[in-house]
Amino acid sequence: MTDLVSERLVLRPWSELDVKAVVEETRQPAWAADFPAEGDAVIAGLLSSNPDWLSPFGHRLIIERSTDEVVGSLGLFWPPSDGRVEIGYGVVPSRQGRGYASEATAALTAFALELDDVHTVHANVEVTNPASARVLEKAGFTRCASTGELISYQRTVS
What we know:
This protein is α+β, with helices and mostly antiparallel strands. The protein has four helices and eight strands. The longest helix is centred in the C-terminal third of the chain and has 14 residues, at about 100-115. It is globular, with a radius of gyration of 15 Å.
């Protein structure tokens, strides 16, 4: 499976060994001190239960190129539904505020929009999480709907 490389990050597909280490809470030397965060552990549990989700189209670890440390994860919830795929992301607290989530989201979204089966990448954020909304806006997403609790964003093939 191919890594995606951006200016400061490498997005590497999760391996079975990565999943096992997170699920079993076996610290790895290549992890940032605060990896995995709660969301990463949830994703690892899902991947452990659904090993067929380990694919180039699914979830990836976010690796900081300057340190080679895993600093978060993100993923596409595959397969697409009517040409649409949802994206989720998270960066550990020690690396937040550096633009990594936006950079990773933009890179994975660009990858997804080049695939034949995908014309839209979308995400929902809680109105109480403006930082996540900024991540999507910086990654080129536009607001497309909202309810009292959620704001929906999407990026489409241009």
